[in-house]
Amino acid sequence: MGFSSALQGRAAHDALLNRQEAELKLLETMKRCLAQKAKCDREYAVSLAAVTQQGLKIDRSDDLQGNHVMRAWRSFMEELDHTAKQIRTNAEQLETVCHEKLASLYQEKRRVRKQYQEEHTKIATQFSHLTEDVARKKSEYQKHLDYYKLLRGRFEEHIKSGRSGRKLDDVIDKYQKACRKLHQAHNEYVLLITEAVEVEKDFRTILLPGLLEHQQSLQEGFIQAWSNLLQEIANLSDMTSDKFVDIQRRIESSIAGINSTEEYREFTEKHKTSPTPPVIFQFDESLVEDSLGKLQANTLTVDNLTVDWLRGRQTELEGTIKDLQDRQSKLCGEPNGTNGATGSSPAAVSPASTPGTKPSTPILNGSSTSNGMTLSTNRPLHEEEWFHGVLPREEVVRLLRNEGDFLVRETTRNDESQTVLSVCWNGHKHFIVQTTAEGHYRFEGPAFPSIQELIVHQYQSELPVTGRSGAVLRKPVLRERWELSNDDVILLDKIGRGNFGDVYKAKLKSSKNTLVAVKTCRMTLPEEQKRKFLQEGRILKQYDHPNIVKLIGICVQKQPIMIVMELVAGGSLLMFLRKNASTLGQRQMMGMCRDAAAGMRYLESKNCIHRDLAARNCLIGSENIVKISDFGMSREEEEYIVSGGMKQIPIKWTAPEALNFGKYTSLCDVWSYGILVWEIFSRGDTPYSGMSNSMARERIDEGYRMPAPEGAPPEMYRLMLKCWSYEPESRPHFDEICSVVDALLLCTKD
């Protein structure tokens, strides 16, 4: 069924026009989006080419002559450059498709739509005019007929009355004229009806079907051309095309050429030296000549003066030997002497971590079950090691890595607390523990008096939690060592307020009432905000450096969630600078700059981008040691691209490339470090004082840089200017900054 037979009605005509208009809109969208894709591909190709240029700049390449890995790396970079060129070529061709072919298709479709609309309107108007002419002619016919009947009646009346003379002649004349006009109107009406019948037939069987059939042919041709264009676009976007596959094959071939056994043969031959001569160590017997024979060379002296020391030394050595034997046993269990730092084989994984097996050691204190999981009916749920409290779902997903890993947690929905079993099984499944009318707990199987018994039953039976999910419990995930109990933390004084909640001075019961700082998270915050709150703790828990604030633990057993950190007595560096502005000496301020640089060097080595380095986010401890704090915006990546608004970005501390393109690297932290140094030497002044955020940003792009603070050493101001280089590649890394600041500190006097 085609257009000619199915789309002759007015509603179908309107629908066809609407369809064509919608297709034109779709073409506009495709053209716009594909142009944007071509732009993105071109920019990506430029960035990729820049990466290859950096990758080919190999330091000390002369020392790597004959190095197989360097050859493979160079080949990899060259092929990556070929990839960039191919992507750029495809992007240029894609732009041609957008600007020429898609635009041409769009213009042609619009022209055909307009032509169809005009032709349809033309023949429809002709038929409409003919219909109106027939109606008008019929009306004229009726008028002539009525007038004819009137005059005929008058004529017959005069004949019957026998009248004669002039009046009769007038009546006869008018009657004849009326009769003539009636006959003429009749003939015209007959001819018009005949014409209308023929025109209607042609309109219905020839004109309209022909127009619709032609329109269908054109539209189907457009669709075919459209399809061909899409196929061309798909080919240009295909990263598995022969050209890219060839590039990948060459990369793999160069890597396969690395031969570890041959790698150092040429190097060894080139740098071969004579073996190191032995160094002979002998007891100097002259030392015991004056000992009256009590001390003998190469012999231990055992008497009441040395026996205790020897016993202690013996115990110490025995412990050292045992430690070495334990290390040897572990290393022997790892193939090729590898460890977790370089990857491990399946043989090195303990049975407890293998999916489908149960841990061989009890994971809870209490009565042990037959499968190794233990059960205590007296202990509350929150004391179980596999209960993780109100840990947010995102953190739970991070902990559940292998099929069958599980834990139990709490969540709040509609102001109601619910216990949830989370399992890694074909993704991550979360099952709410159901409560029966009797107060027992169940999923789909039998009910139990306690949640612990329910979980142990599911674990022992190896039955799916629900038939639909098929999820089976294989390995409980225990609380990590940094997950503290909320009850161990006693909040004392409120010392501040953060983005997520209040900050308290507190003490820990479990550590002889150690004083700590505690950040709390408001219970009313959405899950996304709680996840961001815990992000700071997740980053800090793996860092250990004297110039980084130390994480003690995270409390997620119940609300409120808390991050427990070391208490840095001096508080905010910014407040310290302002409070002690009149007494600060240059050496003291240089020490602060050195501490901050050391902390940031450590973070850079861990691929951590702080993103909010400022005096307000540093703490001052004993002996005026500066510690980097507030990792709420940090990211553990070499490069981080942010999308979204600029609401929470500290404009005056942030590098231009981050503000303009959302691109963060450690070199953005270097820019912020320059601002921090300026804050230190200005004793807590506000950067770009008197300028709004937008004005400061505009002035920076124009090349403006803040003047040196009063009394700042010229060398430190030069370092600030280096940190504020507009191009990130021109800024020093924190390694270099530390070297500069250390050297200046040595020759600085108060």
TrEMBL record:
<keyword id="KW-0727">SH2 domain</keyword>
<keyword id="KW-0808">Transferase</keyword>
<dbReference type="InterPro" id="IPR001245">
    <property type="entry name" value="Ser-Thr/Tyr_kinase_cat_dom"/>
</dbReference>
<keyword id="KW-0175">Coiled coil</keyword>
<keyword id="KW-0829">Tyrosine-protein kinase</keyword>
<dbReference type="Pfam" id="PF00611">
    <property type="entry name" value="FCH"/>
</dbReference>
<keyword id="KW-0547">Nucleotide-binding</keyword>
<dbReference type="InterPro" id="IPR008266">
    <property type="entry name" value="Tyr_kinase_AS"/>
</dbReference>
<feature type="binding site">
    <location>
        <position position="519"/>
    </location>
    <ligand>
        <name>ATP</name>
    </ligand>
</feature>
<dbReference type="InterPro" id="IPR027267">
    <property type="entry name" value="AH/BAR_dom_sf"/>
</dbReference>
<feature type="compositionally biased region" description="Low complexity">
    <location>
        <begin position="341"/>
        <end position="357"/>
    </location>
</feature>
<dbReference type="Pfam" id="PF07714">
    <property type="entry name" value="PK_Tyr_Ser-Thr"/>
</dbReference>
<dbReference type="InterPro" id="IPR000719">
    <property type="entry name" value="Prot_kinase_dom"/>
</dbReference>
<feature type="domain" description="SH2">
    <location>
        <begin position="386"/>
        <end position="477"/>
    </location>
</feature>
<feature type="domain" description="F-BAR">
    <location>
        <begin position="1"/>
        <end position="263"/>
    </location>
</feature>
<protein>
    <recommendedName>
        <fullName>Tyrosine-protein kinase</fullName>
        <ecNumber>2.7.10.2</ecNumber>
    </recommendedName>
</protein>
<comment type="similarity">
    <text>Belongs to the protein kinase superfamily. Tyr protein kinase family. Fes/fps subfamily.</text>
</comment>
<dbReference type="GO" id="GO:0002009">
    <property type="term" value="P:morphogenesis of an epithelium"/>
</dbReference>
<feature type="coiled-coil region">
    <location>
        <begin position="77"/>
        <end position="119"/>
    </location>
</feature>
<dbReference type="InterPro" id="IPR036860">
    <property type="entry name" value="SH2_dom_sf"/>
</dbReference>
<dbReference type="GO" id="GO:0005524">
    <property type="term" value="F:ATP binding"/>
</dbReference>
<dbReference type="InterPro" id="IPR031160">
    <property type="entry name" value="F_BAR_dom"/>
</dbReference>
<dbReference type="GO" id="GO:0004715">
    <property type="term" value="F:non-membrane spanning protein tyrosine kinase activity"/>
</dbReference>
<dbReference type="Pfam" id="PF00017">
    <property type="entry name" value="SH2"/>
</dbReference>
<feature type="region of interest" description="Disordered">
    <location>
        <begin position="329"/>
        <end position="374"/>
    </location>
</feature>
<dbReference type="InterPro" id="IPR001060">
    <property type="entry name" value="FCH_dom"/>
</dbReference>
<feature type="binding site">
    <location>
        <begin position="495"/>
        <end position="503"/>
    </location>
    <ligand>
        <name>ATP</name>
    </ligand>
</feature>
<keyword id="KW-0067">ATP-binding</keyword>
<feature type="compositionally biased region" description="Polar residues">
    <location>
        <begin position="358"/>
        <end position="374"/>
    </location>
</feature>
<dbReference type="InterPro" id="IPR016250">
    <property type="entry name" value="Tyr-prot_kinase_Fes/Fps"/>
</dbReference>
<dbReference type="InterPro" id="IPR035849">
    <property type="entry name" value="Fes/Fps/Fer_SH2"/>
</dbReference>
<dbReference type="InterPro" id="IPR050198">
    <property type="entry name" value="Non-receptor_tyrosine_kinases"/>
</dbReference>
<dbReference type="InterPro" id="IPR011009">
    <property type="entry name" value="Kinase-like_dom_sf"/>
</dbReference>
<feature type="domain" description="Protein kinase">
    <location>
        <begin position="489"/>
        <end position="745"/>
    </location>
</feature>
<keyword id="KW-0597">Phosphoprotein</keyword>
<dbReference type="InterPro" id="IPR020635">
    <property type="entry name" value="Tyr_kinase_cat_dom"/>
</dbReference>
<feature type="active site" description="Proton acceptor">
    <location>
        <position position="612"/>
    </location>
</feature>
<dbReference type="InterPro" id="IPR017441">
    <property type="entry name" value="Protein_kinase_ATP_BS"/>
</dbReference>
<keyword id="KW-0418">Kinase</keyword>
<dbReference type="InterPro" id="IPR000980">
    <property type="entry name" value="SH2"/>
</dbReference>
